[in-house]
TrEMBL record:
Classification of source organism: Bacteria, Pseudomonadati, Bacteroidota, Sphingobacteriia, Sphingobacteriales
Species: Mucilaginibacter auburnensis
One GO BP annotation of this record: cobalamin biosynthetic process
Similarity comment: family membership: Belongs to the Cob(I)alamin adenosyltransferase family.
Name recorded for this polypeptide: Corrinoid adenosyltransferase
EC number: 2.5.1.17
NCBIfam families hit by this protein: PduO_Nterm
């Protein structure tokens, strides 16, 4: 089987179920952004981080594949049985967030992305995750979307934020706190 099919050369592609849509269709944007997020998660997992983080990130990647498959299916025409997202997937994120958060100092300031390449990757992934969430919520206004997908993406962005803090702590990187200066608070007319 060849990797290229030539069926998308004119700007259209098929959803699971056979429906042909433009490649800029909101459904394509939604699962394409989830795929982009999955690549960022893989980049984080490839860093020199603790094995327990790598294991969770691998589970997240597998869950993102399930989400992508569900978003790629035409809810009106697909007869294919796809793996489903479950509340347990969300619970894993919540428990992991709580566990990491309990080991971190209380958050007292906004955190600026940066300080270390690995930490920056988590912030980039968080931003892509937020974009995926925005696109999927837009799709949900037009078409059927499993609401657990939206919840999962929302929780995943929280996980990535806390993971960035946790990695900074483990790598002995000072958090890049945003503390507005008095100069920046002056009104300029």
């Amino acid at each position: 089987m060849k990797i290229y099919t030539k069926t998308g050369d004119k700007g259209f592609t098929s959803l699971i179920g056979g429906t042909r849509v433009a490649k800029h269709n909101i459904r394509i944007e939604s699962y394409g952004t989830v795929d982009e997020l999955n690549a960022w998660i893989g980049l984080i997992a490839d860093q020199q981080i603790a094995e327990n983080h790598q294991e969770i990130l691998k589970q997240i990647q597998e869950t993102l594949f399930i989400i992508g498959a569900n978003l790629a299916a035409d809810p009106e025409r697909s007869k294919m049985t796809l793996p489903e997202l479950t509340a347990t997937d969300i619970q894993l994120l919540e428990e992991t967030i709580d566990s990491m958060d309990n080991e971190l100092p209380q958050l007292t300031h906004f955190i600026l992305p940066g300080g270390n390449t690995t930490v920056s990757y988590t912030h980039l992934a968080r931003c892509v995750c937020r974009r995926a969430e925005r696109i999927v919520t837009h799709l949900a206004e037009e078409s059927k979307v499993n609401e657990l997908i939206i919840i999962y993406l929302n929780r995943l962005s929280d996980y990535l934020f806390v993971l960035g803090r946790k990695l900074a702590s483990e790598l002995n990187i000072a958090e890049n706190q945003w503390i507005p200066s008095a100069k920046k608070n002056k009104k300029i007319y």
